[in-house]
Write a structure and sequence with these properties.
Blueprint lengths: L1 E4 L14 E4 L2 E4 L5 E2 L4 E2 L4 H18 L7 E8 L5 H11 L6 E6 L9 E8 L1
Parallel strand pairs: 6-7
Antiparallel strand pairs: 1-2, 2-3, 3-8, 4-5, 6-8
Helix pairs in contact: 1-2
């Protein structure tokens, strides 16, 4: 079984992909950037503000899939600048106060819409 997850509470896809797919007991979320779902525009702010928006977007999409941040088992963080790691990590950590998921963090040369951070996750359904 493969279900496409879509919600107006998360940014609409800016390409040919789904916000998330639920399959075999897992939810696979596409990478989320700091887009406000109400305006479909990138928010203003530094990496901390953008990370907070990304985490809010991830939470909304997980909720639409019947899951939650507490069920995330894996995440990948893409940073435009590894110098922003501490600021991103501080905000990210607030969303996973105990038993955080496995995670990789990598620096990339450019992200969609020139944002500072993008995060994708895999969660239990």
């Amino acid at each position: 079984m493969r279900d496409v997850i879509a919600t107006k509470d998360g940014p609409q896809a800016i390409g040919p992909y789904s916000q998330a797919i639920r399959a075999n007991g897992f939810v696979f979320l596409s990478g989320q950037v700091a887009i406000d779902p109400a305006t479909q525009q990138v928010i203003d702010g530094d990496v901390a503000a953008q990370t907070d928006r990304v985490m809010t977007n991830l939470s909304a999409i997980l909720s639409a899939a019947g899951s939650a941040l507490g069920k995330v088992v894996r995440s990948t963080v893409f940073l435009k600048n590894m110098g922003d790691f501490a600021a991103m990590n501080e905000v990210y950590g607030r969303y996973f106060p105990s038993a955080p998921p496995a995670r990789s963090t990598v620096e990339v040369s450019r992200l969609p819409k020139d944002v500072l951070v993008e995060i994708d996750v895999i969660a239990l359904a």
